[in-house]
Specification:
The chain has 9 helices and 27 strands. It is of the alpha+beta class. The mean pLDDT is 93.
Length: 392
Amino acid sequence: MTTRIVTASADGAAPQAAASLTRSLQEQLGGAKPALVMFFASTAQPLEEVAPVLTEAFASATVLGSSTAGEFTEKGDAKSSVVAVAVAGEFVVHGGLGTSLAASAEDAVKAAIADIPAAVEGYAHRTGLLLLDPLAGNGEEATLITAAYLGEDIRLAGGAAGDDLAMKRTTVSIGARVADDAIVAAVIFSKAPLGVGVCHGHQPISQPLEITKAEGGTVYEVEGRPAWDVWAEHTAAAAKAVGLDPASLTEEQIGGFLLRYEAGLASGDEYKIRAPLSRNADGSLGMACGIPQGAKIRITESVPERQVESARTAAKRARAQLGAPAAGAIVFDCICRNLILDDRFGQAVAGISEELGGVPLAGFETYGEIALDAGDLSGFHNTTTVVLAFPS
């Protein structure tokens, strides 16, 4: 059976948008029954209003959803919209949802994967999908725990939900069930391997800096000083070049600023990016993924050209893992890349489709990206493009 992947987008009020998505996907599928439907919705279309509509319309499918900081398909990117992708072919998908992620990553993961079988006869390959609430913290922990429970031979891909940079409530869903402080896990069982590619385009702008006080998802001090003071000092010159002054940012501007200038942890010859999400009253920084005390970081940024190039590189890496031409892709791309690229973000999305042969794709702008191959010791990323490619 040939893989068929179709995408759709809609805006406006949630009920009308959900109905529009349903009609478009069904018309394009032409009677084919999808195994997987994923949708990504802005805060203008609450998951609670979209998920039940798609779940009822696509009874054969596992339907997964996430709130976003931006949405896109191969046709372009948008804000205040909802996009969806349906995947039909030789796939079987099982999943679940776990809550209280902040209190216990392990308990949340165990609940999410409780009903996922270890194997499906006739489907030799497994790829994991994760969607989670980054404001709950524990993104890295949940990713590694999921990999440990599902087994060494599985690749993981996914993203952390967004909320249009409000940084107040991010939600995920499976079927009609929607929750914050939660993780959704699913496994795609397939007859041919799927491809997972990951790449970021950031480079350091500071010397190595030591995290001198940190706990959980909060960095309190860097080099013995409040973390925000160090960030402001080391980003001042780069920020000035784009018309920003760290000393005079409004509260509404802080989130976008921090996602532009992130922490880089050395990882082999590259840097694993860690995103600050908030500045706290004491000058500490709330991180999407914790950084251990004693770690050495560099503050980073990226120019648009490197971000466009890195998106294509992620697509190339995903394509290389496929045993056939690509039929389409699901993409998890950091919101900070959109902030850097501005009106060139659509160019980066188009580049992903082109590298995969001009295929359909859908995705969202995240607060964190997940990509983990067998044997990896870390799988939660920031400021990164993750491409999940499906074989034809």
